[in-house]
Amino acid sequence: MILVTGGAGYIGSHNVIALLNAGYDVVIFDNLELGHIETVNTLKNIVSKGKVIDFIKGDLQNLSDIESVFEKYQIDAVVHFAAYSQVAESVKNPQKYYFNNVYGTMNLLCAMLKNDVKRIVFSSTAATYGEPDYVPIDENHPQKPINTYGKTKLMIENIMDDYDKAYGLRSVRLRYFNVAGADSQNRVGEWHEPETHLIPNILKSTFSGGKTFQMFGTDYPTKDGTCVRDYINIEDLANAHVLALKYLEHGGSTNYFNLGTNEGNSVKEVFVSCENVTGKNITLEEKPRREGDPATLIADNKKAKTDLGWVPEKSLNESIKTAYDWECKLTENIKLGV
Ligand code: UFG
Questions:
Q1: Going by CA atoms, what residue is nearest to atom 24 of ligand 1?
Q2: Options 3.10.450.50, 3.90.25.10, 3.60.20.10, 3.40.50.2000; which CATH number does 198-229+263-297+314-336 get?
Q3: Other Cβ atoms within 10 Å of 198 Cβ, number
């Protein structure tokens, strides 16, 4: 049985599908503050024959909540997503982030140790690198986060190193670049309130009543003046977690990998791709730079390819297409009050 914390959220839910497809039984642990019960219900309905998927509502900040999961289930390994992840909010309210992300993870690790569970795949981030010294960013790039969100994830990586040395708890830390797209069968997708990410914000602006898309910063030292990011498809990303889990199952030692495509796209390029995929002329407003946005973030993904055998397959257009299908469904359901 695999414990998935944050399994009712965007990245967690796609990972639950990937784990089920790979034949694992899954228990989801989520406090439903940012995750959605509708997502849990969808996941429960798609479970394949003979496989188990359970849901426990609980908060990692309550040690007893997470301990009770280990008491109830025979957990073999953990995939840990539950966290706050908004950069701007993390700078305004660091306490919220340190409590939830760092203290919450320590409770999780505590429950793991108590129950002799020694394998974890952890959702880390490119934000642990901070302002890049060079791109593409490889895993040896110094980790100098410039915001609280990135600092919480780096702290957890460091804690995991110590727990390996002292207790033999092995971890794989997956450092995501910009995650994009939705389930190709349109069952789950990105559902943040408020939404801050580029692709859903462009797509949302195409619906009636949607806010005009705001493009933050057109004077960056990049090919067209807008920020360049490495957009990795959510299903490709989810597959990497399954491979990481198998790597640990087969005795792999503690490790860390970038998850990206090795390619960068500017905000303007993404915007044009959204127009092409939706077939709509999208209105935009040019705004000043958003605070804390580095000009360019691109992953060097060779290590994940070599050590995990991971091959990201989906294009940016495929991510935009699935994200658009999902936005249509979400907008329709909200309108219908479903
Ligand atoms: N952008 C806009 N308009 C919007 C939203 C975003 O112009 O409405 C721009 C941003 O300014 C940025 C680019 O689009 O230049 C990408 O922004 P996102 O918010 O989609 O993603 P980020 O690169 O800021 O953040 C992502 C993850 C974070 C992680 C960070 C690592 O979402 O969790 O990468 O740097 F911390």
A1: 293
A2: 3.90.25.10
A3: 22
The closest-lying atom of ligand 1 relative to the alpha carbon of residue 292 is: 24
- Number of Cβ atoms within 10 Å of the Cβ of 36: 17
Q: Topology of 2-181+230-259 in CATH?
A: Rossmann fold (3.40.50)
**C-alpha 139 to ligand 1 mean position (Å):** 21
* Ligand 1 mean position, distance from CA 68 (Å): 36
Best mutation site among 87, 156, 176, 228 for ligand 1, i.e. most ligand atoms within 8 A of its Cβ?
A: 87
User: pTM for this structure?
Assistant: 0.97
For residue 68, give both structure tokens.
Answer: 């009770």
Question: Domain spans of the chain?
Answer: 2-181+230-259, 198-229+263-297+314-336
Nearest ligand 1 atom to the CA of 297 is 35
Residue 322 has pLDDT above 80, yes or no: yes
- Catalytic residue IDs: 149
Q: Is the CB of 85 under 6 A from ligand 1?
A: yes
Ligand 1, residues 81, 148, 174, 178: which to mutate, most atoms within 8 A of Cβ?
178
Distance in Å, CA 182 to ligand 1 centroid: 17
Quote the CA–CA distance of 170 and 163 in Å, as a whole number: 8
Q: Assess whether the C-beta atom of 196 lies below 6 angstroms from ligand 1.
A: yes
pLDDT of residue 148: 97
Retrieve residue 149's tokens: 């969100």
28 within 8 A of 16, measured Cβ to Cβ: yes
Distance linking the first and last C-alpha atoms of the chain = 32
336 confidence band (pLDDT: 50, 70, 90): low
Q: Which residue has the higher pLDDT, 337 or 176?
A: 176
User: What pLDDT does 335 receive?
Assistant: 63
Q: Summarize pLDDT for 236-267 with one digit per residue, the tens.
A: 999 999 999 999 999 999 999 999 999 999 99
Contact 261, 180 (CB under 8 A): no
Same fold, 2-181+230-259 and 198-229+263-297+314-336: no
